[in-house]
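Table S2 (text version). Query chain:
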Amino acid sequence: MTIMSRVAAFFRSRWLGGVPLDRLFWRDLVVVGTAINVASSVAALILLGLKLPLALVLAVHFAPVPYNIFLTFAVWRTAGKSSGVKAPLMTLGATLWLILVVVA
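Corresponding structure-token output:
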């Protein structure tokens, strides 16, 4: 399996609800998504400290935003197919997380 097909399978499985909601929310969104955002912010601060162009700094800082939006919508879609009390709470949590990582 090529790297591109593995990446496509990763996104497809999350978009189509093929990943359990708990794993999608806690591992993919909260842990990995937050780590990517922190790394991007640190890299942007380093670039800013090196006095590189502001456009580059902002591009690096906001680079994870499309992935953040994807993860949030994937949680919403998967939660919509789930029942129970956790689904709406995870939808709310994903929404608040998206707001936090985009604003911060």
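Notes on Table S2: The radius of gyration is 15 Å. The chain is about 80% helix and 0% strand.
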